[in-house]
Amino acid sequence: MPANRTAGGRPATRPRPVVRGGPAPRPASARKPRRGAPAGVGNHPKRIVLSRLLMVAVLVVAAVRLVQVQGVQADELSALAEQQRATLTVQQALRGQIVDRNGTQLAFSVETRSLSINPKWVKDDWAKEPDVYKNLKLGTSYEDYTQRLAEFIHAQLGDQAKTADLLAKIRDVGTTYQLLVRDADPVKTKPITEKYASITASARQQRVYPDGTVASNVVGYANWREDAKTPQGLIGLENSLDDTLKGTNGTTLVDTANGNNDLVLPGTIRDSKPAVPGSNVQLTLDADVQYQAQKMLDAYKTASGAADGSMVVMDAKTGEVYALAVTDSFNPNNYGDYKLDQLGNAAVSTPYEPGSVNKVVTAAGAIEYGIEQPDSVIDVAPSFKMADRTVTDAWGHGDVQMTFAGVIGKSSNIGTLEVAQKIGADRYVDLLTKFGLGQKTGIGLPGESPGLVPPRSQWSGSTFANLPIGQGLSMTLLQMAGMYQAIANDGLRVPPRIIKSVTKPDGTVVPEAKPDPVRVVSPQTAKTVRDMMRAVMQKDPKDSLQNGTGYPAAIPGYQLSGKTGTAQQPDPALGGGYSQTKYWITFAGILPADNPRLVVGIMLDKPKYGTQLGSSAAPLFHQIGTYLVQHFQIPMSPTASPVVTLQLP
Fold this sequence. Notes:
This protein folds into 3 domains: about 90 residues, Penicillin-binding protein 2a (Domain 2); about 90 residues, Alpha-Beta Plaits (2-Layer Sandwich), CATH 3.30.70.2110; about 350 residues, Beta-lactamase (3-Layer(aba) Sandwich). It contains 19 helices and 24 strands. α1 packs across α2. The protein is elongated.
């Protein structure tokens, strides 16, 4: 066996070449191990160990996270994924209508569209224009494209979207949102959104008031609320009946694609809740009567130089209000053109001192308590002194004798106070309460004032010298008309109402609950007072002493009852005294007196006192009364009112 082989025939060592003249080879034991290679059994570097530990840690964390995702958080993450692709869409509930007693629409809603645009998306649309445009004279510039876009919108919507205005918004690439037009016709907007992806149409409602100013002080105004996706009532019945009118929006859950809420994935519609429209409200108002009342009132305000005025027409038996008019009514279709102080309803919210129309309380009390009769003779002195107050009549006279009918018909302050003293303060206060003064009528209109009656405990010595002649207390026009409604209705006061019924979405009609009536005086007393107050309209061509203060209100062929009123307005400059130039002029009338159908109340604020129209509202009652007997086809009275003695010779 050769000396360099083992027993198995393998070489014992690999022969090394001999390098002549060079250094001897380094022993194997003196060489450094190669990087990354083991230096010896059980002797690994620390970084190798750390690397392996780090890898193990990463694997452990990944395993824990996998268990967490697939197990513990599976439901939560699934819900988050659902939220990312699920979209809740809202279907509008159409707001209910407001109609008059005959079904004439006073307010209703129509579905509209609001168009908006992202100007930055417009360039994307432009870039996608078909190649055919490159061969047309229209060109392919961005300006040409936006010009065509604006002109197309204008062609669809007309003057509602003017080209120049549209262009300014479309080319404003510094913004991501521009409102192009609101309350557009959905049919007309559809071709626009189909043609241009950069334009979005949002559903909304427009509240429409077809008769403009007619009954606007009653109906009020509703404005669209973007956050609630529904109109909201701001003033008037639109506000106080908002919950009744607005309905409930519907909702549907759908899946959408690519973050586009308008791109609904097929078959993903679920959890649908249909919209429930609002209820319709029917009022007691007659739109034709309301229109005439407003028209006549505005004209009389101008002719008399009054600052403003109001008028109410009421059913004598039921208390239903046919008209509740104020001067200078606003048009809710152009709501933004008016200031806040132009949107009120003075007939229910602004009390005033009534003047002599309040003498009906003394008239009713004197008859009810058997103190006087219409033909009772009363000695009327030139003046009446009570505590620190001296009262005179509107015309100068010496000692005269008047019938009680004459005291009311000629509106004698002195005669009224003499009779009121016989009634007494306590019984007088009780009558004021029964007539509804110092308390709201409960008609259901927002902002109603209760007026003011001084508490009995706070009366001074002169208080009872003011109240019977209509000063020192205040009432609204609606309260004033309610007092005369009680006399017209045989002494039974029915609180006025203006809501007739509510029709629910399912068609169920719910009549408005009738208010509880209040017995003020007996039926016989009411009839006697009614007959006695015919003297207010009396005109004796033979003797002017027998003329009532309201004879210009007379309507040929009809017996009328009523009362004129003139009240000085407080003047702050006089330290609580009354102005000699500023007045409230009032009138309350019953039509006809012999078979009452209607009650009319009128108030004029600061007319030019001393002029024919500025000193009395009787001519205005004649105008509206003449219309009312024709409109309601009220038969003439069988007989004329008898001429009675008002003042003895």
